Amino acid sequence: MERENRDDTAGGGGESETQPVISSVRDDKEDELEGSAAKTKSDSVNEPGEAEHPEQNDTTTGGESEIKSLSSTTKERVLPELTLVLIGDTNSIEVGSKNILLDHDEQTQQFSFSLYDLCGRHISVINMLGQQNTDKFPLNQGVHAFLLLLPNGLQNSHYSSGVQWLEKTFGKESLAYLMTVVTHGSDEECDRALTDLKANSSFVEKRFHTCTKSMRDENEIIALLGKVDVMVSENDPHCYNGLTCGENKEHEEEETSDSSVFHQNQTADEMENRGATTEIECEPVNEPGDAENSEKNNESTTAVGEPEVMSTIPLASNEKGLELSAGETDEDKQINNESSSIMSEQSTEETDKLKDSSSTSQTVSTALKELDQQEERAVTTEEKSDPVNNSGDAEAKEKGTLHMDTSGNTDQPSEKISEENNSKNQSQREKLLHRLQLQEKQKLSPADFLQIGPPVKQDHETSEKDLAHTFLQRLMMLDYRARYIPVRQDSDEVSHSNPVAVFDSSNAKESLIDAFYETSGECDQLKQTHIHPMDVQMAVFHCSDSFLKQNMMTKLSQCQYALPLLVPDPVTMDVECPLWTFRQIRKTWKKTQTKDNSSIITMKSLPICEAETPMVSFFRLGSLSVSKSELINTLINDRHNTFFHRNCPDSTKSCHLMDGVAEIAWYCPAGKPNDAFTDCIAFCNLHGDALSKKSCKKQRDMLIENSSINVVLLPTLRKGASSTTVISALLESPKPLICLITNDDRRVIQKTEGKYIMGLKDRSQSDVSKELKKIIGKILSGPHTSFQLETMAKVSGIRVDEDDAVCQKGKSAAKKVMNALQEMDVSEIKDKFLPCQGRLWHEWCRINKELHHLKGNIEKEKSEKQKELMTIRQKQCDASCSELMKLFIESLSSLPSTDKEYFLKWTQILIDALSTDNLTSILQNYDDKWSEVLALKEKHDKSDQLNRKQTEFEQVSSKLQSATFGLEHIFREMGQIYEAHKSLQKQTQRRQTDWSKYPELAAELMISGHPMELMDGDAGHVPLTWISSLLEEVIKRLGDQRVFVLSVLGVQSSGKSTMLNAMFGLQFAVSAGRCTKGAFMQLVKVSEERKKDFRFDYVLVVDTEGLRALELAGNATLHHDNELATFVVGLGNMTLINIFGENPADMQDILQIVVQAFMRMKKVQLSPSCVFVHQNVTDIAAAEKNMDGKRRLQEKLDQMAQLAAKEEVCDAECLSDVIAFDVQKDVKYFAQLWEGSPPMAPPNPGYSESVQELKNIVLSKASQSPGITLSQFKSKIQDLWKALMNEHFVFSFKNTLEIKVYRNLEVQYGNWTWALRSNMLTIENQLYNRIENGKLDKVELSYLSKEMSKTYEEIKKEMRKYFDDDRDKEMLVQWRGRFENKIKEFHDEQVRGVKRKLDEVIQQKTACKKLDGQKTEFENKLLQKSKELAQQLKDKTQDEEELKKQFDSVWRGWVRELTADIKPIEDINLEEDHVIILYELGFEWALIGESKSSGRYKNISEIGNYFDYVTLTKYQEHCEENQQLQESERDTRGQRTISQLRDRVSKAGRKVLNYFKGSFHHEDQQLIRSLIDNVEKHSFDTIRSKPVATSGYSPTYLLEVAKNVKEKVTEFESKRKYALKKEFTVDLLLYVFDRAESWLSESHKKFKMNNDALTYLENKKHQYYNIFRTFYKGSSSAVVLGELICEKLKVSTVEAVCNKTAIDLAGKMRCSFPAFSGNRLNLEKHVLKSLAEKEDFRGFITYIHQPREQVERFIKEEVEKYIFTSHKDKARDILKKNVEDMKQFVSPTLFTATERVKTQRGHTDMWLEEFTSLLKDELMFEDICSQNFRDINNFDFLKEEIEKGLVLIMKEMSSLSLNNMSEFRLTPDQILIDQLCKCCWEKCPFCAAVCTNTIEDHSPDHHSVPFHRPSGINGWHRRGTVDLVIDFCTTSVASDKFFYPHYDSDEIIPYKQYQKGGDKYAQWKITADESKLTYWIWFVCRFQEQLEDHHEKKFQGNGEIPSEWRKHSKEEAIQSLDEMYNQ
Known about the structure:
This protein is α/β, with parallel strands linked by helices.
């Protein structure tokens, strides 16, 4: 009894108190400890009363869970590192000396030496095996783990009983420290143990272990300890602290503590809901059954007191009374004070009032008002008794009573305490926010979380400072365990498992007892607890802006958590309803109604704010021993903690932000028999004591008023209690009331209609839940009120967040927009207000697709369809001014950013509200019709009924599409309005200001995180113009940022959008059925802290609609899915392939589509990566199963790869042949999304883990990718979509981004090659001069390479830099090796070419040695003769003319004398040689003469029709007859033409000719033209190989060429069905001779100049006349020599300056002249522009048939124009600069030579040698014979004379004409031709468009051209007709037409497979698209007649020119050339 008395007093009551009173007091006391008011006084250790009454402490102080250390003299020891308690069956272990875990049978605590030896750790093992019947067992330290040992085979039954015993014995909190261990024999398997145990709801899989019974295996024990360590680290506190297991049950709720220290079993619900004021109910002690059942009460129930007590207990019943113990706090005083004041002074009064009120018809509000008045009188109980400040209080304390006035107020003013409470609450809140690193003023926003941040760690502890962000991140990932995040404590102040001090047992018993009851050290031990999970949630809520709150609430709802409905402001305590945060939440359920004994199920889907549902509200009146929140959970979902309660993980006693919060949750039935309720019901839970006026009054009143059913939980139902007024008011209310009494064991009693009482005592939770469900169901089956969230805005006294000005502004704007839609059927809205995207847009898309599948007269048809498209655009423009769009755009343009966000949200909300009712019924009808169709299909019903049902289904589907109306449709309308106006821009200039801003508005939204529609899901089309402009605006704002494109692909409703939303916190729409239509894109920013990990700035996520859609059927599905898959896979750097389920057979369709898409990407040289995501996998933990699944997936993928390879005509045996794929790394298994059955199931935590793992995989792979720029992404969209419009994607795909990068590379290549060429030209000049000066007689390749090495190395360095640093380096890498090789080849070719040319110069120099020797002799003699003549004529005449005449008379004699023995070189007569050679080859004189006189041979390469040159072999006799006839005519009439002879052909012959002419195919024409081109090239190369310049011309050269030509013609004829007439061969030979004539003439002229003495002397005449005149004037030898030197310098200087100027001019034009400064395509553009400006048809024909010739002609013309017209001043400046440079070079040379000779006292020979050696590289200088000048000894004078001459030379050169450059070796036009024309000249086999590749041999790249032409330009016509083909190549290859690949071919080839036509076709890449160049359309129309005459065909029939073509002007044609360059 003594022990029991002490136990009773420990609770704070005396022996005379009964158990119920103690329980009530204790409960209220604990409530006070929780609330914010409970923190207003100092901790118990500082109570003054404790020191004054130590003797009372011995008997009144309760036992505490923490033990204070003794004095410093007391010896201490630290407890073992781990304490393990073994519980369970003794048969589960074999105890023995070798058992590592337990080597003894004693049921005691022992230090384990075996474990110490094993791991070196201090571990204590307590053996409690087989002690299930033991109620008490001494525990004097914390327990880290309870090991429940279960024998294999009996684990299920033993587990349940073991858990029950542990909970009963140690309390529910002990279950957190439970580790389950299944033991088995050494020969047993226990694989099923884990599976069996999973059936238990309380089982935790990661806290499970198996081992042998003997426990001798060290590895098993080490693994077990490892799991224990993990569990310890996860638990908070790390160990379980109890006194004894028996005492724990009796005392765990009696312990007192300061505000930061609470027992671990204190209930969470009480902690959350304590008010500042608590009333104490006094229950009659004579309630039946109380004493008997006292021990069965919940944790807060203490041992029963004395059996006989009075019904009303005075607190001062004895001397000790209810005094505060040493461990009690001020709150305990308040409890006692309240108890005494309420029961002694007010109970009678309240009872009377209640009786009075029961006799009236008082309403609930009146009764509650009365209760408020009573609370005001009782508020004085909030005051605490402070002995220090109030002596009266101390006295009252000693007596156990408090002095109170008649009004019930204490002596202390309540205002002061209230201020202290507020101050302390504020301090606690600030401390909480500080610990969480949050700030109320700086709100969190969605942008803070819509970014790629640090990875979320699922299984690792989080520090407190990261707790809030981690909570939000995990919540956004739909991880409902976000509430239960393990925290790593950052400070020692935070409570966790610190070592517990233990005292030596040798101390005196009294000291130990004193120390045991001493509590002063507890504050040092535990200064603060870890943060309550709901504090984290509410702190984040308070510190978030409204948009993040809304997102947060949406995610909480998806996690099936209760949502805050009423939230007190932490500072002002004003109550707010966050109605705005509910606006995104939508609930779907199935309502069940019974009618005529049958169930009718109706599906409902509503925004939760609009849903009208019954609401059941729960309140707590007073302190309870049960958890109200836990009880509500059993009604909603007994497997999920919808409402957080005291028994949830991590619950603590210190919760600061939940008091007074009312949470709401909805039960949504699934339409199944096991539904708890048949309709949706809202459950509301008010946290805290509903009696508290301060924290709960407003909320309580509002909920009672709006509830359908009120449920009240209270400890006892007794008149006179503090709850009486509330209960009375509720009883008088007409609303149903359910009272749940915790200390009552009565069954359900219905007192009156709608008023129920039910006791909870001794009843299981399931029984209570079952009964409650019945009562609620019964009540709601009848008439009842409903609750709607939106009505909260009308409740007075409660602030609604939507009342904020900014929110109202957005709402007002949205309402203004939506007012236009009032009273309209939702299915009609889009047709009326969004007309541009409906029928018109769908029609436009249909016609646009038809453009790529044309038949018949395709150009005419195309022109008509394009006209139709423009008509539709015009209609869209006309219809684009709807009121809805005007208002929407106006608000979107004018509102600030925050207002705009509200506006958009409100617009969507109002739109949803508009369509909700209609949409629900249509969806229901849709499901019904689809079910009917499926049922008929399963029966294989092919009757009319199936067709009828399918028609009905399609109608419903169409109606659903019309009724589906959202914000995305408004944005889509914006896009269509923009596209329509953009396409008609010229016609709509006045309205441009409106629509041109649309992309800017959309770009701002996209940047702020809004998803934007990429593909219109309804039309299945990408609005390219709109998307391109949108992305351009994004680029303007962000810059051309790099993005990593992540796309997703999967079957319909497989959770793609949900996965992306969870992964990145996005807002893609998700719902049942076809949630996403088309494709949407959203930007996710990479946070600053993670940018270092990636090479891109954003992740661009592309969400897509599902494959295999219900709306589509048959081939339409397959085509649409293939199109979508190809588009999505092509867009993404990575594609997530989302597979639903595990059966590969079900995956087959989608896998084939996906693999085919990847194969297409490979063929167009795109290389995306992929990750396969298996969703809804049942057991993702089973590794073996996963391996088998991966194997099956690999097999299926390989099989699909083989099938796709056949489809795409590609070689592939497995998927890895197509893409880089590793089945071990690139396959991720996902747990099923829901943890149970929707709609009430929360998301599976495993799903969240899978999402995080997948995100890590994606980002890991992404970190290795550079991504692409936004501009590249824009280009890729266009390329992919344009290609997809055609039937053959691979052949139609044109990677414009790659093309652009390649063209830039071509420009760089041109710069690099020019640098090499110009350097080599300089080197060539220098070596040429050296050779001419006789200083070099051999050129080595090594020397040239060495001279070039510096420039070459610089170029290679530039190349490396370009390929390594360019922003497109990832794309450039594919060409790097090829271009490096090309540069090397170019370098080597330049070196070899210069060596070849210099070798020819050396050869010429060698050949001229004979003449050079004669030259010296000639010069000596001429010099001597001139000197002699001057002496003879000296002083005879002064007349210049006379001197000239005298000199001329003797000069002719001198020449005859000097050349008497030398044979002169004759001029050549090429015309005569031509005729002779032809005659020798057997051609008639008449035929030769006719051809030469007519001149027709000159145009043989350009004529359009070669029919007149051809005769059929089959009709050879007839042709011979015609030939004889023609010859006879020639003999008699001479020059008659073939056209005249044709008149004499017989009628039969004419028929043959006509037949032949009609059947003469374009291919034949091309073959003849190719023969001409090949012969010309080969002949010219042969001629140029002859040494004409060194050895002279020989007729044998031409004869050799002629024979080769004749052989080529004969060979050509042998392969054809027709023969070529003699006229053809003659004309061809004359054409070849004519082409070679100019080169032969120039070369022979050069030979004659260098080798003919007569010619040489004649050229020297002027020079020697000057010498003669100088001698005549009496000048000295120095003067004469100076003149002679100047004459030679003048010639060489002019040549050097001109050569240098040619190089410089070429370089200048190459760099700055637009036509020459780019790549090959740029040059092409300017050539075509020039032709169009001149409208020169002959030039066009030359360009078409011989493009290089025309380009060379253009270059020459442009160079001439540049030099002499447009830039003549610049050209003159270059020339002058080179003249000045030459002067600056020669003058120092003269000085140097003179100084050297003077220094060495040299002579004239030495001076000349020095001078020429210094000039060797810069100037040519012919040798001068010095024998006539040896008398010179004043070399300074010589220098001066030369300088005088140089001044005259330079002056003369200053006026030098640029025309002189054409006379020298180098000319700028030829330099540029060599540079620019060294490229590809292959022509398209259809239209003869020239390949625009800058590289001559660009293999393996195909030939290509940006724009083709109509094939008729090249002469293509229909076989058997004269109808020219009008079709563009790009149109033809997209059509269903055919062509003959060869002239004699009978096989036709589809244009779509043109590559099969042969090599010349296969070498070309002709992109199938609708593009056409306006330039060629204009050309055909402008020169139609000339083209028809040229080809002798007509543009008629199917080749008729469309009338639309004739509308284009020349200016438009020229302008379109820029479009070509930009392609």
